[in-house]
Amino acid sequence: MRTMIVGGGIGGLSTALSLHAAGLDCVVIEAARTLRPLGVGINVQPHAVRELTELGLGPALAELGVETTFMSVADRHGNIIMALPRGRSAGYRWPQYSVHRGELQMLLLAAVEQRVGPVRTGVRFEGFEQDGDGVLVTLRQSGLVSRERVDVLVGADGVQSSVRARLHDPAGDPLRWGGIRMWRGVGESDQVLDGATVLAGGSNSAAKFVTYHISARNPRLLNWVAEVKVAEPGIVAGADWSRTGSHADVARHFASWKYPLVDIPALLAATKRILEYPMVDRDPLPRWGEGRVTLLGDAAHPMYPIGSNGGSQAVLDARFLARCLATHDDPAAALAAYEAERRPPTSALVLAHRSLPIEKTISLVAERAPDGFRHVGDVLTAEELAAMEAAQRGISDADVRALNERESWSV
Fold first, then answer.
1. Residue 93 to residues 316, 398, 401, Cα–Cα distance (Å)
2. 213 burial level (CB within 10 Å; 0-12, 13-18, 19+)
3. Which of 11, 10, 9 is nearest to 294 (CA)?
4. What is the pTM of this model?
5. Closest CA to 137 of 336, 293, 358
6. pLDDT of residue 38
7. Does the pLDDT at position 204 exceed 80?
């Protein structure tokens, strides 16, 4: 059985490694001519770290990223509202890592090239036809069109997936913008808290500043995300993930903050390039694929990046897809089993992310204590705090006992 994977990102590369580990043949095609360590920070949750560890990448991850200890929420004055233990601190057998997305992608790429073979870069997916015996995929490279037959086609080509657009009418499947604009960057900074905390500080539902260290090799390297509500929710035609943002545009939203936890002006000044894009997702699909064609990762379930879970869910998709293909004789039945397992929980996550639990927490605190507080118990009841913690865990965590005791997905 031979699978073609469209997309050389975290999801696509994890799929190639998972298929290879299951003894299945595959090829990865990628539209970009060169895969480079681009992007900013990402968090890899324990449920994904388990799968990458079972693929033999545990030691390399530990050398690359920062083992996360807490996810903390603060007001604009630096007062901690809640601190949720992460990874092994929360009882998981596996850690959570904060890491540079590009370096994680390069780690996966090196493993794919060593175990599977080269990723075919500069190749664009244009369409497919399928019959009972396989999938005929149309590709374009250097202006030339070719067709290639495979047994299974997997679209792992991101939130603006070309494979998804062939499976589902784009007119009825738009990008949905919540009205929040994001600016992201990486710069060197003094240690924030214990040096291993994902910190989200906010003034109200209209502004939030997230920081976390992302390098075991350079402890001063700090990823930051600024999120500001600038419009009402609506539909957008597209999103340019490589658009350069302005230092001044970010800084003006945080100029009035008294925020001792992070020197925001200094961090912005230390950032060489800022990326700017809208926070978008898509509505959950009633089905991902058809027959021998399916979707994976952001192509299947793009979600707001507020639960630090999108990339991790792609890794879970990859591992379970490989397990299904290795344990079913019929590829179409395998993809149906994969979708039956993975579509319901990821669809629920997409909708849960839209509730913006951190923003609700910050807004309530700002409303009740606009000038800050000495103790969070003076602002929130124990019941309110517990509900807020549960809401945040609901978009980022797996059940600790279930994950620790679940059988391996390795074949």
1. 16, 12, 10
2. buried
3. 11
4. 0.97
5. 293
6. 86
7. no
Q: CA 214, 215, 219, 222: dihedral to nearest 10 degrees? A: -30
| Beta-ladder partners of 223 | 186, 212
SS3 label, residue 97: strand
Tokens read off for 320: 């379970």
| Per-residue confidence band for 240, with pLDDT thresholds at 50, 70 and 90 | confident
Convert the pLDDT of each residue in 242-298 to its tens digit.
899 999 999 999 999 999 999 999 999 999 999 999 999 999 999 999 999 999 999
Tell me how far apart the alpha carbons of residues 306 and 40 are, in angstroms, rounded to a whole number.
15
DSSP letters along 12-30, please? HHHHHHHHHHTT-EEEEEE
The owner of tokens 């696509």 is 12
Q: Which of 26, 61, 29 has its CA nearest to residue 318?
A: 26
Per-residue confidence band for 205, with pLDDT thresholds at 50, 70 and 90: low
User: From CA 194, how far away is CA 158, in angstroms rounded?
Assistant: 33
Rounded CA separation 79/100 (Å): 27
pLDDT tens digits, 322-378? 999 999 999 999 999 999 999 999 999 999 999 999 999 999 999 999 999 999 999
Contact predicate 267/314, CB 8 Å? no
53-72 average pLDDT score = 98
Rounded to whole angstroms, the Cα distance separating 145 from 137 reads 10
For the four alpha carbons of 339, 344, 345 and 347, in that order, the dihedral sign comes to positive
d(C-alpha 59, C-alpha 156), whole Å: 26
Contact partners, residue 263, CB within 8 Å, separation at least 6: 189, 190
Residue 384, helix vs strand vs coil: helix
Q: How far apart are CA 246 and CA 373, in angstroms?
A: 33
What pLDDT, in 10s, does the model give residues 130-184? Answer: 998 999 999 999 999 999 999 999 999 999 999 999 999 999 999 999 999 999 9
Contact criterion met (CB below 8 Å) for 14 and 318: yes
Beta bridge partners of 293: 153, 290
Q: b/e for 45-59, b at 16 or more Cβ within 10 A?
A: bbbbbbbbbbbebee
- Three state DSSP letters for 391-410: HHHHHHCCCHHHHHHCCCCC
Element containing residue 357 per DSSP (H, E) = helix 357-368
